[in-house]
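note to self: dont lose this again. the chain is below, predicted strucutre after it. 192 aa total, dont forget to put it in the shared folder this time
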Amino acid sequence: MNSSVNIMIVGVGGQGTLLASRILGNVLVKEGHDVKVSEVHGMSQRGGSVVTYVKYGEKVYSPIIGEGEADIILAFEQLEAYRALPYLKKDGTMITATQCIDPMPVIIGAASYPEQLCEKIAAKANLITCDALAMAKEAGTDKAANVVLIGILAKRTDIPHDTWVEVLKTTVPPKFLDVNLRAFEMGYTYSM
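---
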């Protein structure tokens, strides 16, 4: 039977979800997997939801991940993590940043940001949380929170560390490489 591994990456526009999916896709191709990536943009330019599906295995026919099919969800923001929860398999893992970004209904006062989202997620999933934004700032820029999360994901795969580093070197623009390598290592060595 041909089985695939299904990973969803969720966040809001401007958080670097697309770069993260490019890094992940490039790593998987380098490791010899058949890879399908599908990006779903909401109002990504205005802070809306962005979802990327990444499927890999011996042979993958469709990039779409249905409810209950994601092995791993990599979430860049708590509310997006909670929204994606129905897509996670029963024994799946949710890796989420603790960052909260107010969606438009909260900004205009029509709703309030939900409380205790990580606790709600932890009740239903294997949950790994981290303050990726603080770690990225420590690495040198708040824009590298996406790569901190990729580091956390990388540690939980059987893909060699060196492969991730090689792909970072060819995927991240040279002027941002050092800070992103630091961010990756912080994520890779992170333990809750």
